[in-house]
Amino acid sequence: MRLELRVGRVAVEVADNRGMPASLPLDLARWGLLAGGAAAGVGSDRGIDVDAEMGLSFVDADAMAELAGRHLGSNLPTDVLAFPIDAADFAAHGQTAGPTPPLMLGDVVVCPDVAARQAASARRRLADEVALLVVHGVLHLFGYDHAEEQEAEAMRAQTSAVLARLHAQ
After folding, report:
1. Which of 3, 61, 77, 111 could form a disulfide with 28 if both were Cys (CB 3.0 to 4.6 A apart)?
2. Whole-angstrom Cα distance, residue 101 to residue 40?
3. Is 0.85 topped by the overall pTM?
């Protein structure tokens, strides 16, 4: 199942690419609006004032394990992966004369099966875990990281701000 939507100047293509029947129902519109709102909000903080596009996909554990194997060197499914394209270059985007194609932010891939296990372990609602992962992935598209403590703190603060603004707890 696929859905295309727009939040401000950010177009989001949301896809449920899990095998059927999927054990956890997903509200693609809800998660697409959250991803688009996070991107638009982070973008406005950092100067995005152009049209942009991004993808948000939900996959099963097998597909996520395959992606993790290719990109992380691990054969275990992870919760979220982000594949930035040119979001880090948004400040320079559109600086040339004439029409500019949309900025390609990149793709975020979430595994609801892993999210469900993490939510149970942390004793929080699945919706809160999925929201956290969607925002986390979007922030990675914009260059946020958590390899160093200072980066991790900035990412946690931005995640909290976005969730407070866009996700009803």
Report:
1. 3
2. 17
3. yes
